[in-house]
Amino acid sequence: MSDIFIGPDRATDAERSAVDAVVNAASGPAVVIHSERLIESGQARRSERRHLLLPALHALQHAAGWISPGGINHVADVLQVPPAEAFGVAGFYDMFSTEQPDEVGGVLHICVDAACQISGAAEAIEAAKAAGRRVHTSPCLGQCEAPVGQFLQGLNSPDRVPSMDESSPLPLPQLGDGVSELKLLRRVGVVDPISFASYVAAGGYSALARAFELGAEAVVDEVATSGLMGRGGAAFPTGIKWRGVAGESGQKHVVVNADESEPGTFKDRVLIEYDPFSVIEAATIAGFAVGASKGWIYIRGEYPVATARLVSAIEQARENGFLSDGANEASRFPSSFTFDLEVRRGAGAYICGEETALFNSLEGFRGEPRQKPPFPTTHGLFSQPTVINNPETLVNVLDIVTEGGDAYAAIGTDGSNGTKLFCVSGNVSNPGVVEVPFGATLGDVLAIAGGVEGELATVLLGGAAGSFVGPDSLDMPLTFEATRAAGASLGSGVVMAFNTEVEMGPVVTRIAEFFRNESCGQCVPCRVGTTRQHELLTISGSGSSRSGSPDGKAKLQLLDDMDRAMKDASICGLGHTASTAVRSAIDLGLVEL
Amino acid sequence: MFGAGGGTVSYNEIHETDLVVLWGSNAREAHPIFFHHLMKGLDNGAKMFCVDPRRTSSARFADSWLGLNVGTDIALANAVGNHIIANDLQNTDFIAHSTSGFEAYAASVRQYTPEHVAEISGVPASAIIELAETYASAEKAQILWTLGITEHHNGVDNVLSLCNLALLTGHIGRWGSGLVPLRGQNNVQGGGDMGALPNKLPGFADITDPEARARFSATWGVDVPPNPGIHLTLMFEAMAAGTMKAIYCIGENPADSEADVAHARAALENTELLVVQDIFMTKTAELADVVLPASVAWAESDGTVTSSERRVQRVRAAVPPPGEARHDYEIFADLANRMGVDWGNPTPEELWDELRSLSPLHKGMSWERLETEGGLQWPCPSIDHPGSPFLHGWLWADDLGGRDPAPFSVVEHAGPHEQLTDEFPIRLTTGRSLDSYNTGVQSGSIESPIRYGDALDVNPADATDLGVVDGEVVKVSSPRGSVEMAVRIQPDIPSGLAFTTFHFPELVDVNMITSDAWDKRSGTAEFKAAAIRVDKLSNDQSSSQLSNQPEKVVS
Hints:
The complex is a heterodimer of chains A (593) and B (555).
Chain A: H1 13-25, E1 32-35, E2 38-40, H2 43-49, H3 53-64, H4 69-79, H5 83-90, E3 107-111, H6 114-117, H7 121-130, E4 134-138, E5 150-153, H8 196-201, H9 206-214, H10 216-226, H11 238-246, E6 253-258, H12 267-274, H13 276-290, E7 294-299, H14 304-319, E8 340-345, H15 355-362, E9 386-389, H16 391-403, H17 405-409, E10 419-426, E11 432-437, H18 442-448, E12 456-461, E13 467-469, H19 480-485, E14 494-499, H20 504-518, H21 524-538, H22 552-569, H23 573-577, H24 580-587
Parallel strand pairs in A: 3-4, 6-7, 6-9, 7-8, 10-14
Antiparallel strand pairs in A: 1-2, 3-5, 10-11, 12-13, 12-14
Chain B: E1 19-23, H1 27-30, H2 32-43, E2 47-51, E3 64-66, H3 73-86, H4 92-98, E4 99-100, H5 102-108, H6 114-121, H7 125-137, E5 141-145, H8 147-150, H9 155-169, E6 178-181, H10 188-193, E7 200-201, E8 205-206, H11 210-220, H12 232-241, E9 246-250, H13 254-257, H14 261-269, E10 273-278, H15 283-286, E11 290-293, H16 297-300, E12 303-306, E13 311-315, H17 328-338, H18 348-358, H19 367-372, E14 376-377, E15 406-407, E16 426-431, E17 455-458, H20 460-466, E18 473-478, E19 481-489, E20 497-501, E21 530-536
Parallel strand pairs in B: 1-2, 1-5, 2-3, 4-15, 5-6, 9-10, 10-11, 16-20, 17-19
Antiparallel strand pairs in B: 7-8, 12-13, 13-14, 16-21, 17-20, 18-19, 18-21
């Protein structure tokens, strides 16, 4: 809380009305002038509205193509956020430009991360620039199955994904193969994603009905029994998380973490684009189980199609009484239960996939992770008890509720229950999302995706925060326990294959650059460490340091020292994992220092 | 009304209160350190009403700002009381047990309905009702005020009207609830506690009480005169009349700070002897026959200060006073010696121990305890007493211990002494800004990026009517005189009202125009309500004077 001084820059009419539309659609401005003698404002109104900052900045960027000083001032005035703080938030995100662009029109984001990098990203960027487009080189856009990923951030026109304008084939290698028994993906490509009726006809909302029959406590018990573990990378037992929140009192939240930004990951996008109701239903079950009345879906800003379908699905669910804030007369919920969902778009920041960074982002602050503990189960969104799960994790709950935790636990291995989605990309014949029961090997998964094109050199497992494994790992079961034993991790389910034709040096360097760009800068070891790691991979020859260029051994020592510092002293997973892929590439001999 | 004068609460009680009513105070700028305590309360969920003619920077932190007409505080407070009683929201048990005079009070506020007072005060009735209901229903609530309440010709009545509300609801004498007059300096409270009042001896002993006088006379070895002195405003009248011939002025700059300052300067010049003891060569010192340079309380002096929460704290010298400057107590002792009384060379601790022997409020506060316990809040009557975070807890005791119950006061709306006229149609009120302190003696030599100098804040609509633009220098006149100053157009000030600070008297002699009306009981002048007119200067006289930093400040 602070005094607010607004500078002389004024918003244009277009900027003003864009921001006002966002704020008025919610709870209105923070200052209400009733008359010359009665004005309402204050801390409560101010803090209640702070979470509108991110949507308001989106509105500014969309209306003007950048976040102008006048626009910032208007947002600051309407929400009573200090302009410097609003600027600090705007500057945090990739999708917001705080400098006036030279070019006019929307921004064409072109992905330069691994799968796209090896498929001609550089040429695509050159071509777009030559055509006079306003180009933004982007980290992974979650379109790895159809490189080169592109995303058009509209200026006064809707955001879109150019490749999805035509009817593109579904990125599901297993669809209709007559062999695979799909669970999480069973409705993908089968139901009409924008039809509530179609979802219900395919068995939708039977899990919620079952949950209401079981009662909240029993649902939490079933989830605990199932042994379901989070699919975002940390593999935390979902039942423990839910039980923790269920035991808290007061206002609680369910947050769906659809800020899928790990390079090589696109499974949640596919789930939401083709089966949005399943995510909504599962989030509703979570709300019922833990006693949360408020749900939020924080989705990547670069996912316009998924966002539009999600918003449409939420509206339909509400119309049909399957979301209700208590005032919905069509509500089909038990009288004691209310739950409604709100969609919030991220704005281009990998770190916001970290749960506490996501909370800060959603609350209208810079997306910097918080110190833990306290954990989200007690101090989550708005410092209130919060269940936060990613879409894949949540969709598992539907089967757990209908078939029981024991039945679910019977699938998979002893240490990893259920089925798992893998995002297979790179040099494979048929890239896409693959679902297998835990226990399938890396080779199995690659085979489902049509097998490797050419001779396999390496697989990036788990994404940029994961590690490279060699062809000798094809027999490794893709389970939490087996990958851990091998010193790797499943991460978010990335399986990116590289054949021997690929020059790996630039791929590894790009991973280092990715972490350098995406470190939020809050922890010094990570801010400095990711930068130095990238420099070690890019700077060569003499004169790069006072004592001349360090030799390979010294560089490796430096890399390991920094890795240890980041692991010891960063507060979130970004710093902890920023070196693993690079280090594994060196170990495998894919690159030399 | 409650005896000794001091805030009834501790600062940290506001962290835990449920409702803050900031009335006639721009604490954000005038009491910035205390305001941080207040903000903690807001962060913890307290609601806040701000009652002020201006939408000050403090008011921006309030859930509701009630912009009343200058001088209508009593009407508004009585309307709050009216609504509480009319809706039976008062604390009946507390009133019956701990107060007196309720019936008369209730009868007196009957005519002050919210609708009626809306017309007097300009505050919508709905807002008055909301304030009344919120205050009455809050578990813990504090009313805080400063000079917006006291700097009126009926300032004492203003205070009493707020005290009535606390009695009505029982928001007094309990942790988190209370009445808080914020002090303007770190040691204004200490000055009063030490007897720098015309009718009090140290520890608020009444000078007309023979028993108290006997105690002080015994310790001091002289007979303490039985007659109350006179307060500042009367002193100036006496100086002007020639009946007060000598003035010893210590740490005060009345030649800049008095209302109707031309009158004040003439009065000072009318004395036969003016001695000024101060840390800088002030305007008053320039008029003096003798100037005694004194050390600065902070960093150069040993001793104690007492804050608004009655907390006595030690201060210590870090550096010796520069040049010929000496500690106040050394100057006094020397002066006594020259007058033929041997005061010796007392140390601050010895002086303090003498006070403890005379003031029961301070008796338990040994030098050592002040050091080790980080200060103590009076009353602290014995060495094993922990000090008193809040006052008047006795009101809640089953047995009032022989004390009289706290009396309600019947106070009526009067409005400002100086009425608006066709000749002087604009209401002027004055106040302080964050970057400056009073006449600038202590703050003028420090640069500030937010300083704009003294300017006349006017509403945009009024500026249009007057035909003046932002920064234009205009002539501002009251029945007492005129000054030239720049206009600052402020959307937040209601139309018909003008405001200025008074920090740069050498640039803009604001107190040339402020009102000479004053409250006979408190001796405080009505700085807050003058009637003025604003005239454009002819074109060649007018030039923009408004700048970030005044070129010349008092030093």
